[in-house]
Amino acid sequence: MITAIVLINVEAEEIPQAAQAIADLDQVSEVYSCAGDVDLIATVRVQAHEDLADLIPGRIGKVRGVLDTVTHIAFRSYSRADTDSAFEIGVEGA
Fold this sequence. Notes:
By secondary structure, this protein is an alpha+beta fold. It has one domain: Alpha-Beta Plaits (2-Layer Sandwich). It has three helices and four strands. The chain has helices at about 15-25, 50-55, 80-90, and strands spanning about 1-10, 30-35, 40-45, 65-75. A four-stranded antiparallel beta sheet has the order 2-3-1-4. The protein is globular, with a radius of gyration of 15 Å. Pfam families: AsnC_trans_reg. This is AsnC-like helix-turn-helix protein. InterPro entries: Dimeric_a/b-barrel (IPR011008), Tscrpt_reg_AsnC/Lrp_C (IPR019887).
């Protein structure tokens, strides 16, 4: 599974609608509106790099109001949730 973080700039008046439209796409896990250099940050999970090519320019990039995207591919996760779940594998009642 490939995880990517997509930074998305959107026309200001379209942010809520664009965020919801992106969140509704298959393979999009979360969408956050945020302050700073970008308007939205989306986490996507796909099976292959080719799927990123279909999803990001092909679907996210075509959502009304989206101006541009920058994609960062994750190599490894260091989140506590991932670590905790790894240690629960094979443990009864976990």
